[in-house]
Amino acid sequence: MTLLLVVTGCSDNDDRIEIVNPSPKEQWGKTLVGSDGTIFAYPDLYVNYWEYTWSTEQHSDLVLRIKGAFPKARFFSFSLYDDEKGEAIGGFADNEIVPDDGSINPFVVTSPDQGSFTVYIVPSAMDDSQVRRLGSPNVCRVKEGVRRATIVVREYLGVDEYGGVELPSIEAMDRNTMEEVAAPIRMNSNVTSFDVSYSHLWSDERDEMPFFLASRGAYYPNNSTDYLFARTILKDDQVLVFSFVPVTIPKTVEEYKTAHARYWSICFGSARDTHSYYSVYDEQAAVPDGEACTFVVCMQQNQDLEAVRHKVEAEKAKGGHWQLVVWDRERKSVEGNAIGDCIVTMYRNILPDKSWEYSISSMIPTPYGDPVNTAQENPDKMIARRALGKYGPHGWKYTTAEFLADQWTERNE
Fold this sequence. Notes:
About 10% of the residues lie in helices and about 35% in strands. With about 425 residues, the chain is mainly beta.
């Protein structure tokens, strides 16, 4: 549908302009799916994204009004970015959004009702008196100097592609008159562009694989999430083992406020293209609160793969919370290249409680380039196992023979 301006005459003195914007699914970009291998920067496999980008330079007097229904999902958020830099400049997590009058926010209170919301994106030049005229607490301001802005909606574990609801509508108003005007036509965004440059790190060859807190990136980061990351090269005759006690997740909506985190997952991606290829999230892992889980990573090309698989199944039969990930270095990416043997592991915590003693947010971020050396500046705050104890993942590589002979327990306990 194209944008229409329809003039309707009610009388000689009353001509009204009816604003007909495109439908929501036409306003937003196509669904970006974490699991289809097209998104860069190690996405979770259980998230869908949508983006809307417009020129704030050409529409400096426009207020965007985003209206929709709360989706049925584990988590969703609005994030606002400088599209030229990928820098986050604002946004709302689901539980921060105040619902419309007479409605409810199902991420705050358990309810069978769907609930609706309205969020405003205002230009940097809009003064506080104008903002107050909106009568809404859900206001996000474009940063001064931003020429192109991007809104990204994220949904984790939605009941279907759109979380059981329509995508939010995007409407516009003139900030001076508060009259409705046509919403800007969506521009192409840089959100799907990413400069991938792979370089070998000396630490890739080490048997030890520590985890570090990722620094806030400039590539459209999710402000509601913190990440631990680790990286290693796995050979065909090796097995990688790491273990930790996962953060406890809430069981009801009412527990969201006091939860240590809303959601956790472990994702495995290729350092050669930054796509994610394997992922396990909290409910799949099914780890009881306070108990440890163990992840075992083995190459598809390992000649003893079946023996490794049998051992993992035996440990699970004894009550262990084990996960086996079989990495195929010959698997082809969407670009047609082998994903290779350099694996990046991401431990994701959404809405981590920064006041919790073992929160990954309490750590000091470590740059990606040479994290092992950099972490020596303050290892007690930069290496997850030292900073978080049993709640911090930590890995080691073993020969397959060592793993099958239980020699891995000597280091991982």
